[in-house]
Amino acid sequence: MKSIAVIGAQWGDEGKGKIVNYFARDYHWVVRFSGGANAGHTIYVNNKKYVNHLLPSIDPRTESLGFLGAGMVIDLEQLIREIETLEYDFPGIGSRFYIDPEAFAVLPWHKEQDRLLESMRKKPIGTTGKGIGPACTDKVSREGIKLYLLEDEPALKERLENMYTLKKELFGGRLGMNPEEMFGYLLSLRDKLIEIGVNFTSSIDLSKSFREGSVLFEGAQGVMLDLDFGTYPFVTSSSCTVHGVTSVGFSASELDAVFGVIKAYTTRVGSGVFPTEEDSSIADTIRERGVEFGATTGRPRRIGWLDLPAIKYAIARSAFTHLIITKGDVLSGLDEVKVCVAYEIDGKEKAVPSTSHELFKARPVYRTLKGWSSISDRAFAEYIQLIESETGLQVSHISYGPGTDEILKRSELFDR
């Protein structure tokens, strides 16, 4: 397959980074098309752990290249730290990353705004504090900094002065740097990126390379956190569906496959509705076994049973062609496992919600299955078959550990 996408089908943290890293060895390009440093994709290379918040999850041992698309909001300082971490083990890797100059910058002002706004809310959203929301707000209100301004210093200086004037009116003197300091800060980051070999190249200029080679699109967060279709307002500020690939000049219809990644259970970080959430001791057991703590924030993740109505909603919103299951091994050893197969909404049973708002009113309808001692057991195969029959999609791969190679094709597992 020349072009595929790997998308989170739940509330993020499904293990997409590992799945992308697994596929990346067979692709020339790995492309992040949305989101910012609020995402955390954990990969293992030569048994060493790396957490990418911005970098596409390329396999450093191959010749694959990474592209950060125009739909992203990029914290340049964080990006430099991630590249330098990889440079320690893979010298020269910075030159394998490309950034679209049409992408927007996340500024220290945005991070401070994020903290201020969260502290002012009567009911906090539970943001990561990485400045994503304010950066996207500036993008939409036409106040933001596109990265191509780093090469137009007079225009950059003027834009920063205009931004600061407005922000000072709104937030007083609580934003730290003045415009001159911010100007110097951004130019120093630009120079550092150039020094370590990062390329600023438009997706238009790379279009031929994308289409003549092979490209893997790496989603951020999950469909249930999508700005348009997630459980608003407890969502992120950008596109989490496959349709975000338009920011790189692609259409979802051009892709050969769209893989929706789901855990064998469900997790969520931060506030917001969570129909299958468990608050019993079983949640603590799953959290500890699955090491369910945010890659970006370190916060303990909320734990719940697998939610098939939410997954079917995600399938409808993001045009998945296959599913990939992660962490089935985490549930090994439980006597029984519950699966939400429908919602009760306003007294009526519903197999899939029509809108994200219906999740706020949903009561889960569960089916209880026999547990399994390992993913090789017949009971686990029946669990997978239930997912497939309910969703109408085949599970193509099953991940059973944190390592990149700890993954099996469906046929490899069940034929054994």
List the defining traits of the structure above.
single chain; alpha/beta; ten-stranded mixed beta sheet; 32% helix
What does this structure look like?
Keywords: Cytoplasm, GTP-binding, Ligase, Magnesium, Metal-binding, Nucleotide-binding, Purine biosynthesis. Mg(2+) binds at residues 13, 40. This protein has helices at 16-24, 76-89, 108-120, 132-140, 153-171, 179-195, 203-212, 281-290, 308-318, 378-391, 410-415; strands spanning 3-8, 29-32, 41-45, 48-52, 65-68, 73-74, 97-99, 104-105, 199-200, 215-218, 257-263, 266-268, 302-304, 306-307, 322-326, 336-345, 348-350, 363-370, 395-399, 407-409. With 416 residues, the chain is an alpha/beta fold. The longest helix has 19 residues, at 153-171.
Strand order of the largest sheet: 9-7-5-2-10-1-11-15-19-20
Radius of gyration: 21 Å
How does the major sheet shape up? 10 strands, mixed
Number of helical runs? 11
Helix/strand-derived class? Answer: alpha/beta
Mean pLDDT: 93
Helix content: 25-40%
Which CATH first-tier class of the domain at 262-415 would you pick?
Alpha Beta
CATH topology of the domain at 262-415: Adenylosuccinate Synthetase, Chain A, domain 3
CATH architecture of the domain at 262-415: Alpha-Beta Complex
Compute the separation of the termini in Å. Answer: 26 Å
How many beta-strand segments? 20
- CATH homologous group name of the domain at 262-415: Adenylosuccinate Synthetase, subunit A, domain 3
Q: What is the general shape?
A: globular
Q: Any low-confidence stretches, pLDDT <50, length ≥5?
A: none
The fraction of residues in strands falls at 15-25%
GO molecular function: adenylosuccinate synthase activity; GTP binding; magnesium ion binding
Main location: cytoplasm
Cofactor: Mg(2+)
Organism: Kosmotoga pacifica
